[in-house]
Amino acid sequence: MTISSTTTITTLTSTSTTLTSTTMTTTTPWNSRLFCFCVLRNMGEELALVRTQQQWGAGVFACEAHLILGPAETEVSKRLGDRAGNDLPNLYLTAWEEVKIDGQYKAADWVVKVDPDTVFLANRLRFRLAGGHSANTFFANCGARQVLQGPAHMLRTFQVFARGAVDRFLGDGQWRCPQELGTHPPDEQEAGYMAQCLQLLGVNISNADSSIPLLEDPRCGSSHVARAGCVSDAAAFSSFSKVDEFNQCWFAAKDKDAAGG
Prior knowledge:
Layout: E1 2-9, E2 22-29, E3 34-39, H1 46-56, E4 65-70, E5 78-79, H2 91-102, E6 110-114, E7 119-120, H3 122-129, E8 137-139, E9 158-162, H4 163-170, H5 173-181, H6 190-200, E10 204-206, E11 215-216, H7 225-228, E12 236-237, H8 243-258
Parallel strand pairs: 3-4, 3-6, 4-5, 8-10, 11-12
Antiparallel strand pairs: 1-2, 6-9, 7-12
Helix pairs in contact: 5-6
């Protein structure tokens, strides 16, 4: 079953930041409405990568609603609060607080956190998620369990959560997880902390056997995706810090979809 929806993303302005406003009509698989967000860390070519995605309507810009968080001087992002900065060990927690304040995620079925250098195909993810999944779940995205922390084998570059899981994390999880799991780990251990926290809160893990192709990444036992050509059925490919490499992967994946591959 599909639904047609019209989504407006509101323009936000400040003295140093402007968010674009987008209205789009999409045909979406039932229960597959996406709220997607990413965090700019003001490193490398991340801003150029996001500008490229905005130009094409790609990545988070292909979701029903999106939020981009980053330094105040970027024109495509909302300021990540006074606490944001490259030297903060828990930038991801500040970002989740902004997601809660923003509130757009409550109208979605799924919440997706994507790194700026990850090639993400929203339509592929929608159809992977359509029907048959619990409203209280999050997804493992990497088969290489031995290289990751925790039992959920999840990389931070591309994280997929049901809205119900996010409700729990932004509710009881904000006090219970620090209390029972200890100090928040640094950003490098974000995915492991999220997995442990959500399981503590009674959220189910899906795709533990990696049967749903979500992410292709060298750390997941894949060949280097730049050399492999991004022609697998994955919904996301990481990581491409250079715009030209990112573009090559994006167009290879889109050409595969256009060919019905």
